[in-house]
Amino acid sequence: MEETREQSFNQSGCNVHVIETEKYKTNTVIVKMRAPLEQDKITMRALLPHVLQSGTENAPSATAFRSVLDELYGAHFFADSAKRGNEHVLTFTIDVANEKFLHGESNLFDQALTIMSDVLFRPYLQESAFSEQTMKQEKRSLQQRIRSIYDDKTRYASMKLVEEMYKGDSYALPAGGLLKEVEPITAVSLYDYYKKTLAEDMIDIFVIGNVKAADAAAKIESHLPFKKRKAILKENHHSHKTEEVRVIHETQDINQGKLNIGCRTSITYADPQFTAMQVFNGVFGGFAHSKLFMNVREKESLAYYAASRFDSHKGFLMMLAGIDQKNYDKTVQIMNEQLDEVKNGHISDLEMDQTKALLKNQLQESADTARGMVEVLYNNIAAGVDRPIGKWIEEIDAVTKEEVSAVAKTVVVDTVYFLSGKEEA
Amino acid sequence: MKKTNFDQMNETVYHEQMENGLNAYILPKAGFNKTYVTFTTNYGSIDNDFIPEGETDFLHVPDGIAHFLEHKMFEKEDGDVFQKFSSQGASANAFTSFTRTAYLFSATSNIKENTETLLDFVQAPYFTEQTVEKEKGIIGQEIRMYDDNPDWRVYFGLIENLYKHHPVKIDIAGTVESIADITKDYLYTCYETFYHPANMSLFIVGPVDPDEMMSLVRQNQSGKTFAEPKSVERRFPNEPAQSAEKHRAIHMSVNTPKCEVGLKMPASLKTGTEKLKEELAAGLLLEILFGKSAAFYEKSYSEGLIDDTFGFDYTGERGFSFALVGGDTDEPEKLAERIKAQLLEAKDGKNITDESFNRARKKKIGAQLRAFNSPEYIANQFTRYQFNGLNLFETVPVLETMAIEDVIGLAEKMIQEESFSSCFILPKETA
């Protein structure tokens, strides 16, 4: 595999990373803004990207803004907020057609940069604050979005588990904000917060496409002139010792029970044992050959989905399955048994080979999308780790069964959360 | 092997029809790591009434059988094919739609082995009573998972409202009751009828050598024997223009109500470029009327009637087509009325302006270019277009030649008041 490496440029208030490639028919700019997760900020951070997209000085309404994008051959503008361990990351993306595939167009990339610049630096204001009308609409939309998490039961169950398991830790906060915190936000308070974010967040900008690196970096510097800032010190949240497993059972009027079991491990992305942990998750529940899928689904027909997910930025591992309520005890038992199997080193050569082959495949595939490349780069940048894809693959190859079983022993079951229907007749 | 260049898109497609009738396509993508391969049969959930291979009378099969068959293809006498793909570093999957069943993998290594595994496993069925019974528990959980999903429920609730007879109204996975009737014999019957190579298509996209890959496919296929290709006789009931039900409300454990409005359209009689134009015109019409830069969106959003879940979708497949518009709302009745009014006014050409047409067309062209970044999109959509007698690579050039009259003409013809229906998801009253 040929590895595409980025060229990085340190600018006064941000770092710019450019990947030159002719693979795509579009060019992409991604701005990432990172700050600690905080209870009194998270809801404003969830709201801010939506308010910024609702109008700029040059396009003073959401409709005007969307029209500018449509005219630019449907340039795709996308903003969201996500948790990254105990940090909160705002991501702004613009993706625009490469004019070489169109008849008689030029400078689409420059126009896209102007739009990104308008959104971040020249929002539509009234009396030195965001517009009241925009605030009203976007607060309402945010409330609706937060309420609707309840409607997606699989997502709701995962969110509740994290909320219960990490009480007192900022990781428990939902990336999309807290319902009760939406109403008090005002046009002035959000505008003040916006200025603070712009001045203080850690900022990384990525450019991917058919561009010249130095040229693109110079354009970023003039379009996105972030001011000099201090580095944010990372807080270290140590996971507390679990005395005994907590069990939480909630009922709603639904058909299928959603079982989510939360576990802690001290190993995170920045640790040398991270790749062993990744292989562990693959052997245990990441794939269709994994122990959870084979035993819960294929052997016992208990579930359609049965898997494990690992959030490496926190050291949080979740097992999950959708089951009939009556099979709760049996499923929990099988899941615990399978975890013990890995801890006791009962891992076959085949399981190791399959897991490594698929992990390597995933990594190589991620380099085929602009977004995938940026995620890999950003994880390394934000964690202060040097693990480019090539090196990462070598590390995966070198993982042994003993290492997998050793990292498995760090995994401790903490909280069992079960969302089920009312008693079955 | 025939080579076709699509200059504007800077892509080349290689095609060969194998002696057994299989259509194989290769699109080399330089610079990509991943190769993505789909093996698709022109057979989906709507094909439930047909003359089985080797027989003379029509047979009606249980609901959900195409999807059930897709699940069961992966299990073989010596174990699960997923295991083999995993060992070869490939991530495998499959899906069943109204009109297609696709088997696929993506991989960055062992491309030849994986392609052979894909061809071989789909062309060697192995069903036993025991494995069929075991699958009923798994698919039962899949069905129950969808039963709790309000987006799926409103989608299928609306299609059930629109169609009186056509099998598009049947949930692709069937029901817990209908899959209880599935047997290994039914599976073999469906397999023998619809999995003939002449009814299938292979699409390979990735950093591959087309000569080498095509010769691998040729060799693999010539080593197997199949019956003479013949077209399958399928039967579909006549569907009236009128929607089956005007409205339904489904109560679920949710916070936010949902509203979807559907419009049943007459199945297209056109073919080739004309049919492509019709499909593109339908997409443009919805974008003009309901897109984020439309006056409708601005008004409804600023009033708090819709949020950013609001959207629209046009489906045009073999024998049926419909449009859906809607999203989350606190006032489903009001939103439904407004969507209907907007569509009915468009029948007279209202809100379809040169400005909005040009903007929608530009947006669509850009979206097509972006979609060509994705090997998954290319393989899946190329196959869908091919089964419908269309060419995916014509979309951008055809869009560039389209005029506002194409959209106005379609609106006038396709929008009929009797063909509307609406479906709501409402929060369950707490006892």
From TrEMBL, chain A:
UniProt domain Peptidase M16 C-terminal: residue ranges: 185-359
A Gene Ontology molecular function term of the record: metal ion binding
Pfam families linked: Peptidase_M16_C
Database matches in PANTHER family: INACTIVE METALLOPROTEASE YMFF-RELATED, METALLOPROTEASE
Name of this protein: Peptidase M16
Organism name: Domibacillus mangrovi
Automatic annotation (TrEMBL), chain B:
UniProt superkingdom: Bacteria
Domain Peptidase M16 C-terminal: 181-363
Domain Peptidase M16 N-terminal: 64-175
InterPro entries tied to this protein: Metalloenz_LuxS/M16, MPP/UQCRC_Complex, Pept_M16_N, Peptidase_M16_C
GO molecular function: metal ion binding
UniProt xrefs under PANTHER family: METALLOPROTEASE, ZINC-DEPENDENT PROTEASE
Protein name (record): Peptidase M16
